[in-house]
Write a structure and sequence with these properties.
By secondary structure, this protein is of the alpha+beta class. Helix content is 27%, strand content 26%. It has 4 domains: 92 residues, Rossmann fold (3-Layer(aba) Sandwich); 68 residues, Dna Ligase, domain 1 (2-Layer Sandwich); 130 residues, ATP-grasp fold, B domain (D-amino Acid Aminotransferase, Chain A, domain 1); 98 residues, Phosphoribosylglycinamide synthetase, C-terminal domain (Glycinamide Ribonucleotide Synthetase, Chain A, domain 4). It binds adenosine monophosphate (AMP) and glycine. Adenosine monophosphate binds next to strand 8 and strand 16.
Length: 425
């Protein structure tokens, strides 16, 4: 089968790496891809937002399965369009993608079906939102309803911060139409975990979990980023908590979507807080996480093509999805200055010198033609450049391996956190 992966980050490099291992995969394409995916697949110069361009490429290259990495094309209806054209595609429909693209839709669904989440209220008027903030004790969390590239959430410690978030979103329209409506919700405390399951709308596969690190500096200091590292499995989730997450959250939301006539097919990502009262939902995403994918796919023992095709065909019950006990730790290397302004185009060295069980998944990289000579050089082309994934029998071994190897990769200005998966923080 020919397969097309849509996207260009570390998540998509990891997807391409895993799909390449399947004996079912013939030609593999990534659109638009990066220098890492170019080593495993043919990159196509088509933006992930160009749904018609992607559909034309899927026809031309006789693609039997298209796998969509990021949320924007899903929210834009790529799955509906591909289905109209008879092109098999892995991911939720535009309407089902509202679990991520409308926080109000997700919250209403959860409250209707009794799925545990932070209590919240929706507002379409800034005045009413302000009145509400005056009536509750901070901290509160202000969230824009629509997609905001991970920037639409403010955990406000004071009323003033909450008021600023309300006027930024609803009056200054910093997030455009995504901020026309907002949710204000209670602030939960506990440990955060990212939970993933494949589903065809009926069957929900065994869960796999990971933790990610959003702040740029050690000790969770500094501004938010796209993610500076991750590890799997989380050491603080016991079997009882995992069972509750499955029975109280992941299975009920899938069955709720089906009951509402909007069956959800693809991979469902629950962003949860493990509170003193048990697991509660912070948000749903309708895709794999980045950089969580880089630490969960190495643990997948089942053929990924078999799983994805079964999801698309609605026969996931036939597939035995297994995750290994192995531990994985990903350390992300970023450009100097990131998440602020940064320069790019710097050569990356040391990639050939890594231990052989270590994985490197590239994100912001491209191939530069050297002025003379032998082949292409890999250069930086973005904020987050690559992740180095260490593997081991436990997290300590995986972590030691990731850090032994990330030190060998070099590019000008490159930086990374030193405390990923440091469990005694
Ligand atoms: P989200 O995009 O909804 O995952 O929110 C981004 C981050 O904001 C989460 O990873 C949490 O750290 C934080 N957050 C979101 N909702 C809440 C909440 N109700 N209570 C505390 N923290 C939250
Ligand atoms: N790791 C966070 C995300 O993918 O949304």
């Amino acid at each position: 089968m020919n397969i097309l992966v849509v996207g260009n980050g570390g998540r998509e490099h990891a997807l391409a790496w895993k799909l390449r291992q399947s004996p079912k995969t013939d030609e593999l394409y990534v659109a638009p891809g990066n220098a890492g995916t170019a080593t495993l697949a043919r990159n196509l110069k088509i933006a992930s937002s160009d749904i018609e361009g992607l559909a034309a490429a899927a026809k031309e290259h006789r693609i039997g399965l298209t796998v969509v990495g990021p949320e924007a094309p899903l929210a834009g209806g790529i799955v509906d369009r591909f289905n109209e054209l008879g092109l098999p595609v892995f991911g939720p429909s535009r309407h089902a993608a509202r679990l991520e693209s409308s926080k109000i839709f997700a919250k209403e669904l959860m409250s209707k079906y009794g799925i545990p989440c932070a209590r919240g209220r929706a507002f379409s008027s800034a005045g009413e939102a302000r009145e509400y903030v005056n009536s509750v004790e901070p901290p509160v969390v202000v969230k824009v309803d629509g997609l905001a590239a991970g920037k639409g959430v403010t955990v406000a410690q004071t009323r003033e911060e909450a008021m600023n978030a309300i006027s930024d979103a609803m009056e200054a329209r910093v997030f455009g139409p995504a901020g026309e409506k907002i949710i204000i919700e209670e602030c939960l405390s506990g440990r955060e975990v990212s939970v993933f399951a494949f589903t065809d709308g009926e069957t929900v596969t065994p869960l796999v979990m990971a933790c990610d690190y959003k702040r740029v500096n050690d000790g969770d200091m500094g501004p938010n980023t796209g993610g500076m590292g991750s590890y799997s499995p989380p050491e603080f989730i016991d079997a009882g908590t995992a069972q509750r997450i499955c029975e109280e959250i992941m299975a009920p939301v899938v069955h709720a979507m089906t009951a509402e006539g909007v069956p959800y097919r693809g991979v469902l990502y629950g962003g949860l807080m493990i509170t003193a009262q048990g697991p509660k939902v912070l948000e749903f995403n309708v895709r794999l996480g980045d950089p969580e994918t880089q630490v969960i796919l190495p643990r997948l023992e089942t053929d990924l093509v078999d799983i994805m095709v079964a999801v698309v065909q609605g026969r996931l019950a036939e597939i035995d999805v297994r995750w290994s006990e192995e531990a994985c730790v990903a350390v992300v290397m970023a450009s100097g200055g990131y998440p602020g302004p940064y320069s790019q185009g710097f050569p990356i060295t040391g990639l050939e010198s890594l231990e052989k069980d270590v994985l490197v998944f590239q994100a912001g990289t491209s191939l530069a033609e050297p002025p003379e000579g032998n082949g292409h050089a890999i250069v930086t082309a973005g904020g987050r450049i690559l992740s180095v994934v260490g593997r081991g029998a436990d997290l300590a071994q995986a972590r030691a391996s990731a850090y032994r190897n990330v030190d060998r990769v070099r590019f000008k200005g490159g930086h990374y956190r030193r405390d990923i998966a440091k469990l005694d923080l």
